[in-house]
Automatic annotation (TrEMBL), chains A, B:
Predominant subcellular localization, coarse grouping: cytoplasm
One Pfam family from the record: ArgJ
InterPro entries reported for this sequence: Arg_biosynth_ArgJ, ArgJ-like_dom_sf, ArgJ_beta_C
Site (Cleavage): A201, T202
Catalytic reaction list: N(2)-acetyl-L-ornithine + L-glutamate = N-acetyl-L-glutamate + L-ornithine; L-glutamate + acetyl-CoA = N-acetyl-L-glutamate + CoA + H(+)
Gene coding for it: argJ
Protein name: Arginine biosynthesis bifunctional protein ArgJ
Keyword check for Acyltransferase: yes
Pathway membership, UniProt: Amino-acid biosynthesis; L-arginine biosynthesis; L-ornithine and N-acetyl-L-glutamate from L-glutamate and N(2)-acetyl-L-ornithine (cyclic): step 1/1; Amino-acid biosynthesis; L-arginine biosynthesis; N(2)-acetyl-L-ornithine from L-glutamate: step 1/4
Organism: Caenispirillum bisanense
Length: 417, 417
């Protein structure tokens, strides 16, 4: 099963600067896939701080349970990240937790660190016990590879490719900023394309900066930036049991640590972090299963920012809106329907809708005689912009998604085996 | 555009007993469709009481606004129902409200009743002004037809067909019960197949009983029965601007009016009403756009009935669950995913899942070596039953939906024109 690369993929994987002391290796362990890397080990320097954001699912996977606990127990320090593709180790009961414990113990032994400084993720089939021996028996080799700085070392593209499941392209992003005059780098990779597509998919992302930042500051920055980025994308409204976003700060850039997340010296860093997360998040939406169009939904004039986001997400999640866009139909009636169903305050007679910048409806009705030509041309493109003004207040939000096509049904309606 | 009849349709339209004084006519007004009935006028006897349940959309159509207001202003009395197909008169601003006013005024004049005793619904394209003259100029003829007791009179199937949009079959249901020893009949028709499918669809239902029931009792019974029936179905999670369910009681059966909805003498009537609504609601799900399988989702063991319903609806609305069923894949991992995303209390390690009566997962993991043969056979059938026990409490709920197929994309991704 090899899917064609999404027509919405970026032209190329970005050039990522090396980060001092950060080394990694990908390896083919045969967990499920044959003849491809399916394990990523990233080793981080001592004193690296960590922050995490996880799925809101009430049925999280065993690795998510572990990461949440490790962040607390290990006081938000990290020495390694271990990610496998092909098996999610989700809904595997006690067996799943035992797998995590064995994997983490072996990694900690090889690296020489506390188990709670090892973060793990698994993505792939749900409900099947993870064959963790295939990971542990390879860990000596993988660690040696990482430390040798062999051909994989520093190769972020290879790292991003090792954690793919139904993704059609590896996802990476990088930005630089200064803190107190010191240049720092932020590198990130991600995977994800549907929520748990043909039994495998999930959103995982690992972001590393060489900035020196206390763990509590890191967590505050990550939580805030996630809200405007990864929490603003949707493919099919489904939520994985395994979503994991981890941010690590190694401190090797040598800036003076800033102790308050609100400190103005972090302004440029915050902006760069948000850009990295947004870039990665949008790549996930661009790789949405079966996607043929990338959709930006901008809502303005809502009662509050929260209301705006809920309305925007309701539009982005509506199967009727998404199928209309797949059919290149500027069907704004469905946008009205979605606004109405969102449950937030709205006044039909104040709504205004723009498609590709052209106002098609205002004051509760169609704009008479609007020029359809640019709208039709916009709908035939790959990048669709929908704007809705609620006309009530100042709340605004922007979210991103993709269309709903036959490809989605093909990918998700097929047998697992 | 003529869609093939859903493979999930009932064998035949039911035989509906005549109701004294209830007369109606269907007519081809050419509102949008050519050469088919697109208008239904139902005339009800004097002193008929009325109750209604409407869309929760914050952007309701002009006819929904009217019906809500008419129920209040007319003290929940009704003399007529007028429904057109082809144009929803939704998101039409003041022009839409004016259309309703003209239509209602003409109907009231023809029938000789107060305007607020005329209930109207429109279903079809959103955002286009309703050509109401095509209705008003035909109303004398339609009323004469209804009163003549011509060939349409009493033909509930013709009435149900006149209000169809993307429906592939007309929907009707009938039951009888006794109140205080007097036999009463409940007849209902409905339309609906997606939420506002290719710009047209919506759920409309009109139910008439010859029982004598005060309006407040009627409203209480309707609200309660709706919660277990029409509010337990979903096709694509999208909500129409026009959903309308009206219940009328003519009183011609001659039972002694019961003044309290909690009165035990209404027990059989309540059960029969719920059966009629459930029958109609399930027919709507069976006619879901592109549906190839009818799905019953039963949730037990939730913290509360409300939690159970929310979990059940989340499963029923999940594109990943629905595409898996379309693919005949007993993919219970996606059911776990949906339970997790519902936001209600759940403990992964207490969940149990049955598909077609066979336990496939329990205590947070797959049931080892369960017999797949009956499960595979069940998935190949047209009637799918998913059972989820949350293992926490006594809350339970059952909801109904259909699968998500290429047919849905075909119907909803096509151009309006």
């Amino acid at each position: 099963m090899s899917l064609p690369v999404s027509p919405l993929a970026p032209a190329a994987f970005p050039q990522m600067p090396a980060l001092t002391g950060v080394t990694f290796a990908a390896h083919a362990c045969g967990i499920r896939y044959k003849n491809r890397d399916d394990l990523l080990l990233m080793v981080l320097p001592a004193n690296t701080t960590a922050a995490g954001v996880f799925t809101r699912s009430k049925c999280p996977s065993a690795p998510v349970d572990w990461c949440r606990e490790a962040l607390k127990k290990g006081k938000a320090r990290a020495r390694a990240v271990l990610v496998n593709a092909g098996n999610a180790n989700a809904f595997t009961g006690e067996v799943g937790a035992a797998s995590v414990a064995r994997t983490v113990a072996k990694a900690a032994e090889v690296i020489g660190c506390a188990p709670e400084h090892v973060f793990v993720s698994s993505t792939g089939t749900i409900g099947e016990p993870l064959p963790d021996a295939r990971i542990t028996e390879n860990l000596d080799t993988v660690f040696a590879k990482a430390m040798a700085g062999g051909d994989e070392s520093g190769d972020w593209q290879k790292a991003a490719a090792a954690i793919m499941t139904t993704d059609t392209f590896p996802k990476g992003a990088t930005r630089q900023a200064t803190i107190d005059g010191v240049t720092v780098t932020i590198n990130g990779i991600a995977k994800g394309s549907g929520m748990i597509a043909p039994d495998m998919a999930t959103m995982l992302s690992y972001v590393v900066t060489d900035a020196a930042l206390p763990a509590d500051v890191l967590q505050a920055l990550l939580t805030k930036a996630t809200d405007k980025t990864f929490n603003c994308i949707t493919v099919d409204s489904d939520t994985s049991t395994s979503d994991t976003l981890l941010l690590f700060a190694t401190g090797t850039a040598g800036n003076k640590p800033v102790k308050d997340a609100a400190d103005k010296r972090l302004k440029a860093f915050k902006a760069a972090l948000t850009e990295v997360l947004l870039d990665l998040a949008q790549q996930v939406a661009r790789d949405g299963e079966g996607a043929s169009k990338f959709i930006e939904v901008r809502v303005t004039g809502a009662e509050s920012a929260r209301a705006a986001k809920r309305i925007a997400m309701t539009i982005a999640d509506s199967p009727l809106v998404k199928t209309a866009i797949a059919g290149e139909d500027a069907n704004w009636g469905r946008i009205v329907m979605a606004v109405g169903k969102a449950g937030e305050k709205a006044d039909r007679d104040r709504l205004a809708i723009r498609i590709g910048g052209v106002e098609v409806a205002a004051k509760g009705r169609a704009v008479e005689g609007y020029d359809e030509t640019p709208v039709v041309a916009h709908m035939k493109g790959k990048e669709i912009v929908l704007e809705v003004d609620i006309g009530l207040g100042k709340g605004k939000a922007t979210v991103w998604t993709c269309d709903l096509t036959h490809g989605y049904i093909d990918i998700n309606g097929s047998y697992r085996t």
